[in-house]
Amino acid sequence: MISFNRPTYTGNEDKYVVESIRNSGISSDGKFVVMCQEWFEKNLPCLRAFLTPSCTAALEMCAMLINIREGDEVIMPSFTSSSTANAFVLRGAKIVFVDIRPDTMNIDETLVESAITEKTKAIVVVHYAGVSCEMKAIMDIANKYNLFVIEDAAHAMMSKYDGKSLGTIGHLGCYSFHETKNYTSAGEGGLLIINDERFVERSEIIRQKGTNRSNFFKGLTDKYFWVDIGGSYTMSNVSAAYLWGQLELADMINQSRLINWNLYYQQLESLQKEGKINLPYIPPKCIHNGHIFYIKLRDSKQRAELIEYMKNHKVLTAFHYVPLHSSPAGKKFGRFVGEDRFTTKESERLLRLPMFFGLTQNEIIMITELVRKFFHQ
Fold first, then answer.
1. What is the DSSP letter of 371?
2. What is the pLDDT of residues 134-155, one digit of tens each?
3. What residue ranges define each of the domains in the chain, with the CATH number in brackets?
């Protein structure tokens, strides 16, 4: 059986995890936490980087940092994880969903401005499959209306838009190191990226349970106090040690995934030319990271048939998000603005094929041969 996903593991992680366990400082802000954060600040680059327990936690911090209040509105796509919306709903915001582009599955930048009201506080973009949204247009709109832009870059480590790393373009950015992502901190984990000086000091307070504990360890105060809202938003040193083992090999992991992504594309391009499927589209300004390889079928019925066919041949595939606006919570906490031309239709066509570090080229050839046989049987 070829599984849909296997967590990234190189073997380089072991020595650092053992070192972190044997060190007395296994909780937050230990040696490996600091090393990882400095790596991101240098290599993305960004103003500041803070490891968190999850991308969800990083998004929740964003909602606090931009002072989301009851009645504020936040614009985002409906084709995303519930975490993207929950972070702002928890602070009292109303979610305003707009349609996606069918080519990239990202928010349609041409529809954002018409969704803005006097209550709009922020635009949250989601870089689906590690492929960038049209960030220039979105930043121009945000600047025009004095709105915050938050990048949900959960899929997008090592991806770029017009030469800039995703997550570093908006005011704030969030990454995921969940076991399904290209890099993992032992199954769970996240990263908050600060690109605006206004948020640096307060982000340190919020992630330390609302205290000025960070200043205490810098020697700036003789004791620390509860000074703001916050939570326990730090990553353990053990998890960071696992992640550090992968960051040392970040380029190798990235190239391996891109090679496999490109092989998938080459093997299935003939089916696209025949009009049987649609393949992912990468816009000219975008450099992606091979996070997801998906195909689009005729409809949900055909997708279900292919999922069953592949399973019967010992290959696991998966659909992705059910649009949030069609869910009970989405109807309660949000509204869809404009016509749902593509969000529902395209989400019901999309099927993800196995993609993980260690997937062999022979396995990809076998998978793609099965897909071709399904259409030619």
1. H
2. 999 999 999 999 999 999 999 9
3. 13-247 (3.40.640.10), 250-376 (3.90.1150.10)
